[in-house]
Amino acid sequence: ESGTDRIAEAAAGIEADIIVNVQGDEPFVKKEPLEKLLKQFDGPSVQVASLMQVMTDEKQISDPNYVKVAVDKNRNALFFSRSVIPYPRDKEVPSVYYEHIGVYAFRKPALIAFTNWPVSPLEAAEKIECLRYLENGIPLRMVIVDYMGVEIDTPEDLERAFRLLKD
């Protein structure tokens, strides 16, 4: 059903405590963000973690190809959406927008548990697999990172990636 389901199938026979999934559309991931991601597992409470970066481009904020995430004070995800979240109803109140980056780390039991749950209603509506964790009561710890490069989800993204490689 999803990349996480495929990672869980591959990881089932591997002896490991933490599994990291760098999705194929994230070819520019660097070492430092991965180290920050893994650091989240120093305490036993974190079961799943992922990356996010601040968004400032209005066009990207409103683009459904960019998954946005809203977080609580502890940087746990409240919701993921292709829509603008938070919605800026009061233009006088400053809003911070975070882009979810398709890099995940899981404690192995949490990864395997994912495959035992059916696709959740919000996951099906948004086509965002990590919503399955939230709908099953598993928090996702989000890690703020600096610019990660280009995610390659569209032909325009591929063109930007080629430009980035030339620079």
SSE blueprint and pairings:
Blueprint: H1 3-11, E1 18-22, H2 31-39, E2 48-55, H3 58-62, E3 68-71, E4 77-81, E5 97-107, H4 108-116, H5 121-126, H6 131-135, E6 140-144, H7 155-166
Parallel strand pairs: 2-6
Antiparallel strand pairs: 1-5, 2-5, 3-4, 3-5
Shape: globular
**Rg, please?**
16 Å
Low-confidence stretches: none
Q: Percentage of helical residues?
A: 25-40%
Main beta sheet: 6 strands, mixed
Record field, number of beta strands: 6
Average pLDDT level? 89
Number of helical elements? 7
Strand percent estimate:
15-25%
Element-level helix/strand string: HEHEHEEEHHHEH
- Separation of the first and last Cα atoms: 37 Å
Based on helices, strands and strand pairing, what is the structural class?
alpha+beta
Q: Quick summary of this structure?
A:
By secondary structure, the chain is α+β, with helices and mostly antiparallel strands. The protein has 7 helices and 6 strands, in the order αβαβαβββαααβα.
Structure report:
With 167 residues, the protein is of the alpha+beta class. 33% of the residues lie in helices and 23% in strands. It has 7 helices and 6 strands. The protein has helices spanning 3-11, 31-39, 58-62, 108-116, 121-126, 131-135, 155-166, and strands at 18-22, 48-55, 68-71, 77-81, 97-107, 140-144. Strands 1, 2, 3, 4, 5 and 6 form a 6-stranded mixed β-sheet that branches. A hairpin with a 5-residue loop joins strand 3 (68-71) and strand 4 (77-81). Helix 1 (3-11) packs across helix 4 (108-116). The chain is globular. The mean pLDDT is 89.
